[in-house]
Design brief:
The protein is an alpha/beta fold and 466 residues long. It contains 16 helices and 19 strands. It folds into 2 domains: 2-236 and 448-463, Rossmann fold, CATH 3.40.50.2000; 262-443, Rossmann fold. Helix 9 crosses helix 14. Bound molecules: adenosine-5'-diphosphate and alpha-D-glucopyranose.
């Protein structure tokens, strides 16, 4: 099968979160299954791709022979950030990503080999399924091509004022409530949902949640209407990249048979984060975007009680100004016990995953979550809320003696968080139980191979119904 991924972030070229990990890694797994995959992304500032493909794009290769095309436009993409700055989104995002969608279609024709599947990711690519069906509906080049849309995060929908409609470059008649319109505005994620041939999201649990009023972000009705074309496929983890035994950022490495070296990384973590250098106090680490989704408001509400317990906390992240400031304030209030480093830093993220005892993930919602999978791999026990992909990856220690790998919060509240931290502390003081938990965590596997096979099934179904 010929598959092209279209996404706004792809590792190792541009990344703000898990979308990039998925779009740079799933193609490798699909290639290993024998498919021909290519990727199209914007040529953002700093993307280290030099080779010119044509006037529209530069090109690089990942995996065996996956071509990554980077669409060039200095005024749209050569900026400090991908989508906006800490104060908000770039005001011309509709124009930027409409351009991305149109240029993608033109580039596919430049490349000149018809593809079976265009696999779109999130709202930034939501226009592509419409372009294929409407603008290119009669073009013989695209006759066999079908689209799949993966929703990585339903809360980000690409909503814009209807006054901008002309910039989309599609028929005016499509601005109606069954297609592009959503409460008198343009909604690019809804557009993708309505026009794609198949839709997936990144965990089975989240696929259920997005069909409910509580978690459907207003799109539950549209999603439910197409639920026979929806699959929840759990993301995988790149176990070559995330390997505590062979990790370029961590010396010495450690394995599932012997993780004593975690102590060395814990000491360095305390040093780098300026936490008190005590070995018998558990550290709760956090790595992630600092935004509403990640449950930082709950941390703020619970912090006074948490800081009375014998724990330390190390936060690594960038994001919204108000969360950055809130965490910095807490670190001034609780020196040597609570610490935050406001930056995006690959190297330090490895240190937090390896050096922490527990990994805190009190997300309000979590489509899949990769950080808890990484933490598990590094023998760091997730303490997580009972939502989305966390439900599909974290097994509460009370629910299985033989497979329990973490602690799931019993409710999304200060008392729920307190209770889960207390259960974590209970295990921490019983070395046998803790060792069993670490062993189960490090043995947990979420492979891309399994997920890729599932995606291929969806692609096949799409092509069958052609
Ligand atoms: P999301 O996509 O919602 O941001 P995920 O858990 O799916 O969350 O993926 C987050 C990815 O981004 C992980 O690979 C994580 O290690 C990385 N990451 C997030 N914040 C940082 C940071 N400040 N420094 C380094 N890596 C980070
Ligand atoms: C999103 C979600 C996260 C998921 C990632 C990759 O950004 O917030 O839960 O793991 O996409 O699919």
């Amino acid at each position: 099968m010929k598959i092209v991924f279209v996404a706004s972030e792809v590792v190792p070229f541009a990344k703000t979160g898990g979308l990039a990990d998925v779009c740079g890694t799933l193609p490798l797994a699909l290639e290993k299954l024998g498919h021909e995959v290519s990727i199209i992304m914007p040529c953002f500032r700093g993307v280290p791709v030099k080779k010119i493909f044509n006037e529209r794009a530069k090109v690089a290769i990942i995996g065996k022979n996956i071509k990554v095309y980077c669409l060039v436009n200095k005024s749209y993409f050569d900026r400090a950030n991908l989508y906006g700055d800490p104060t908000g989104d770039y005001p011309d995002n509709l124009e930027r990503f409409a351009f991305f969608a149109h240029e993608t279609m033109k580039l596919l024709k430049d490349i000149g080999v018809p593809v079976d599947i265009i696999h779109c990711h999130d709202w930034q690519t939501g226009l592509i399924p419409v372009l294929l069906k409407e603008n290119y509906g009669a073009d013989p080049f695209f006759q066999g091509t079908r689209t799949v849309l993966t929703i990585h995060n339903l809360a980000y929908q690409g909503v814009f004022l209807k006054e901008e409609y002309a910039k989309l470059g599609v028929d005016e008649a499509l601005f109606n409530d069954r297609q592009i319109e959503f409460y008198e505005k343009i909604n690019l994620l809804k557009t993708g949902i309505v026009f794609s041939d198949y839709m997936t999201t990144v965990s089975p649990q989240y696929a259920k949640e997005i069909q409910t009023k509580e978690n459907g972000c207003g799109l539950e009705g549209v999603i439910k209407m197409r639920k026979n074309k929806l699959a929840g496929i759990l993301n995988g983890l790149d176990y070559d990249q995330w390997d505590p035994e062979a990790d370029d950022f961590l010396k010495p490495g450690y394995s599932a048979q012997d993780w004593l070296a975690k102590k060395i990384h814990k000491a360095r973590l305390q040093d780098v984060f300026k936490l008190a250098p005590v070995s018998d106090v558990p550290i709760f680490g956090f790595v992630g975007r600092l935004c509403y989704q990640k449950g930082l408001d709950l941390v703020e509400s619970a912090i006074e009680g948490l800081m009375q317990r014998p724990i330390q906390m190390a936060f690594l992240g960038v994001g919204e100004d108000k969360y950055q400031k809130m965490l910095q304030k807490l670190s001034r209030k609780y020196p040597q016990k609570f610490s935050v480093l406001v930056k995006y830093d690959e190297d330090l993220s490895h240190l937090v995953y390896a050096g922490s005892d527990f990994f805190l993930m009190p997300s309000i919602y979590e489509p899949c979550g990769l950080t808890q999978m990484i933490a598990l791999r590094y023998g760091t026990i997730p303490v997580a809320s009972y939502v989305g992909g966390l439900v599909d990856t974290v097994i509460d220690l009370n629910s299985s003696k033989t497979r329990g790998n973490g602690v799931l919060m019993s409710s999304y509240s200060v008392s729920g968080l307190d209770e889960s931290v207390d259960r974590a502390l209970g295990v921490y003081s019983q070395k046998d139980k803790l060792n069993a938990l670490i062993a189960h965590a490090m043995a947990s596997r979420f492979t891309w191979e399994a997920s890729a096979k599932h995606y291929v099934g969806c692609y096949e179904e799409c092509l069958k119904s052609a």
